Every structure is written in C-alpha cells, then in structure tokens.
Amino acid sequence: MTVKRMDNVGIVVEDIDAAIAFFITLGLTLEGRMPIEGEWAGRVTGLRGQRSEIAMLQTPDGHSRIELSRFDAPAIASDHRTAPVNALGYLRVMFAVEDLDDTLARLSKLGATVVDDVVNYENIYRLCYIRGPEGILIGLAEELGQQTSRVNPMERKQ
Questions:
Q1: pTM of the model
Q2: Mean pLDDT value across residues 129-136
Q3: Alpha-carbon distance 97 to 127, whole Å?
Q4: What whole-number distance in Å separates Cα of residue 100 and Cα of residue 104?
C-alpha cells in the first residue's frame, strides 16, 4: 500500500478570518495559524516569491483536516469560487453532521446558503450542498435511523 492516510484538503480563500469562523461554527477546531514564505515554499508549490498565511482546522474525530490558505503573493491567478458543481477540478468537501437542521441554522447566520434543496437519500442520509464564505462548496450529510456503517452510493446495487 502506498497511501497511509489523507492529511488535509486545501482551500484557498481571500478572507481567512471569515473562513476560520465558518469552519469553527461547523464544528472543526483551529489547530494553528502561521505565515508561509521563503524559498522552500515556492519550490513546493511552484510559486516563487510565495507569501501566504495558512490555518489548519481539525474535525472532531481527529482524522481529517482543512487547510485554509490566503495568498499575499503572487497575485491570485484564477477564481473558481462560484463554479457550478459540474465544473472540472475541486468540487466540494463532504462532512457528516449530527443534526443537519441545526447545522444549517448556525451556518446560515454566517451567510451560508443551500445550493438547491435538502434531500432524503433512500432513508439513509439527509443531504445538501451549501455555499459558505466566498462561495466555498460544502456537502453536509446527516445519517438517518439505526444505520451504523458508512454507505458509499457508488457501491449500492441498482
């Protein structure tokens, strides 16, 4: 086996403070914040002269992280914040939540909006996509009933 784990998902934002507040309200914990710059950083990312700030947030189970990055230099090259869900590239991050209605109520106070509708997937999950700060696309899923194992819809029999 080559991969040991997935350490984090990176999201580039313009307003790192608003994005941190959003993910803390969602239930993640801020692990730390720091500037990233120097010759080594540019060699990793291919952005020579890179100056950025990152914030690392951890999920309550301790297994997953979101790395938020705000770039001061070089200038932002492109903006995908309002891309539709069928756009090529990064789509979304999906979070399992305990109470979808409560989560939506808390996040809506920070400007989050449901993309279209909250749906019931075969009485296994209640699901929706939301747009958070800066249009970040987030999936939310509340497990229904006595379901104890994770279900991958791609593995279900048709």
A1: 0.85
A2: 92
A3: 10
A4: 6
The two most distant CA atoms of the chain are separated, in Å, by 52
Q: Is the pLDDT of residue 156 over 60?
A: no
Provide the 8-state DSSP code for 30. E
Q: What is the pLDDT of residue 149?
A: 47
> What angle, 0 to 180 degrees and rounded to 10, lies between the N-to-C axes of helices 16-26 and 100-108?
160
The pair of three-digit structure tokens given for residue 157, joined into one six-digit string: 């029999």
Q: CB within 8 A of 123, min separation 6: which ones?
A: 144, 145
Residue type, 147: Q
* Secondary structure in 3-state letters for 81-143: CCCCCCCCCCCCEEEEECCHHHHHHHHHCCCCEECCCCEEECCCEEEEEEECHHHCEEEEEEE
Residue 151 predicted with pLDDT over 60 = no
Q: What does the alpha-carbon distance between residue 48 and residue 109 come to, in Å, rounded to a whole number?
A: 38
